[in-house]
Task: inverse folding
């Protein structure tokens, strides 16, 4: 636990993280149902409004330019129009894949409850409106964590739930393949109520609205949502160590992330251990293989040293692969080379 906190401090992801305006953490893929993450916090209403605000998303850019530009770089913004998702969802035919790639207002179904698929404006993916718009209003009313915020453009509702992982669970706690929420809740991060946003929405001082700098600076969360598609971010997820025990080389892969590693389906990590050109062995970590590492856990592997020099150095390398569209656009495949996210030289 202490080591995990030190890691977050080192990367600058803790300071101010509990004062951020938040959205769900990323686009979810297909899969079977998981158990409900927690009691939904749907807004009290007997007759939900049917007004659609989804065509208004670009309007947010007029005042919240910095936040909006961050969001444009995120996987949230690509959630629906990504070519990889189009292929993986069988050209949008797999209904179970769609709701979290173009969700309706998450406050309509309730934080931590699975959202519904919105009827229009799906290319925007997971937008500002999806996460922040009040579900009972027939005009702009935005939810966020600050209780002293004000805006001439829209109403504001202070909502403490936006500082919790329930926001993220709306999409990342609903399917077995992409259920980061439950493994987070069972981890030391979850026990300490260290929410997803601490790592996936790193905060910096800035202005909530770029058009009004008379207001005090606040901790503003990044809406780029770094995750599995961010190479430098993924490199902080694991650590490799090892030592010799008799005629065996013991290698341990530690998961330093706040949830299972890898976090969801369509992501694979492969460990290769070599002495010179001799491969001692490999290990694959993925949802599909049924072999993932719990948060804070170490996966211990043993390799025989019988066929290598009596004393020397072993090289352990963990390479991470995402899925991408194939060259012909007909299927999804693992990217050919991946990226090295952790490595170690082990003397024996």
Result:
């Amino acid at each position: 636990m202490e080591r995990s906190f030190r890691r977050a401090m080192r990367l600058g992801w803790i300071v101010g993280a509990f004062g951020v305006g938040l959205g769900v953490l990323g686009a979810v893929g297909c899969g079977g149902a998981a158990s409900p993450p927690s009691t939904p916090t749907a807004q009290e209403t007997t007759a939900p409004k049917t007004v659609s605000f989804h065509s208004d998303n670009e309007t947010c850019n007029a005042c919240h330019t910095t936040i909006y530009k961050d969001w444009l770089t995120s996987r949230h913004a690509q959630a629906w129009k990504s070519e990889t998702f189009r292929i993986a969802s069988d050209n949008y035919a797999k209904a179970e894949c769609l709701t979290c790639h173009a969700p309706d207002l998450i406050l309509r179904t309730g934080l931590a409850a699975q959202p519904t698929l919105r009827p229009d404006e799906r290319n925007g993916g997971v937008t500002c409106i999806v996460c922040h718009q009040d579900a009972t209003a027939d005009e702009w009313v935005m939810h966020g964590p600050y209780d002293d915020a004000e805006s001439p453009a829209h109403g504001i509702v202070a909502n403490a739930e936006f500082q919790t992982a329930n926001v993220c669970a709306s999409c990342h706690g609903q399917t077995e393949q992409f259920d980061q929420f439950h493994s987070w809740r069972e981890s030391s991060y979850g026990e300490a109520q260290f929410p997803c946003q601490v790592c996936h929405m790193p905060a910096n001082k800035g202005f909530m609205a770029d058009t009004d700098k008379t207001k005090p600076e606040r901790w503003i969360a990044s809406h780029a949502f770094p995750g599995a598609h961010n190479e430098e971010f993924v490199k902080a997820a694991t650590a490799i160590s090892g030592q010799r025990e008799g005629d065996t080389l013991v290698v341990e892969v530690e998961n330093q992330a706040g949830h299972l590693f890898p976090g969801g389906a369509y992501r694979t990590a492969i460990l290769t251990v070599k002495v010179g050109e001799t491969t001692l062995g490999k290990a694959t970590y993925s949802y599909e293989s049924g072999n993932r590492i719990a948060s804070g856990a170490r996966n211990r592997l043993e390799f025989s040293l019988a066929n290598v020099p009596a004393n020397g150095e072993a090289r352990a390398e963990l390479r991470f692969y995402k899925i991408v569209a194939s060259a012909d656009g007909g299927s999804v495949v693992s990217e050919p080379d991946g990226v090295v996210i952790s490595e170690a030289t082990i003397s024996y």
Remarks:
- The two ends are 29 Å apart (CA to CA).
- DSSP finds eleven helices and twelve strands in the chain.
- The longest helix spans residues 2-10.
- The first strand starts at residue 141 and ends at 144.
